[in-house]
Amino acid sequence: MPDAPQISAPGVEPTPVVLDAIDRQIIARLHENARIPNVDLARAAGISPSTCLARVRSLRERGVIVRYTAEIDPAALGYHLQALVSVRIRPGARHLMEQISDELRTQPEVAQLFFLGGSEDFLIHVRVRDSDHVRQFVLKNLSANPAVALTETNLVFEHHTALSAGLRAVI
Q1: Where would I find the beta strands (DSSP E) of the chain?
Q2: Cβ atoms 2, 171 nearer than 8 A
Q3: For residue 137, how many other CB atoms are within 10 A of its CB?
Q4: Which of the pair, 168 or 106, is modelled with greater confidence?
Q5: CA atoms of 10 and 68, how far apart (whole Å)
């Protein structure tokens, strides 16, 4: 059995969460379809609907289930291009990293923002209309910032969300 998942906030020591086989089954089913009716979820987990509801509530209260989301096709909204932008902050501007992160997360183009260890400080996944839009994003939000030392933009030709493979490794 894999180690228990750990739930934590930045700067807080993770607290291990103990999951049994039923919890793992519920999580796997919700990961595949967060809109599954409780009665179907209960049937899949082999428990009563009332027990299932209590289990899901417990998973939320323990911080295992953080939120339910809908996956949106960006192309359907006119965002036909995705890019990954690596960012390196100047050594003298390291104290601004949290502020830069907070500003970037408010930009509508930003789908995901990763704070990294290694040669780059941030990796930004952006969804944009076209190549000019990504260029404008980089110029306005990164190159114009004196704290930014370097950016590198990579276009995404295909993007796939893992169905459950990554989740199965932790549950």
Answers
A1: 6-7, 15-16, 81-89, 110-115, 122-128, 148-156
A2: yes
A3: 22
A4: 106
A5: 21
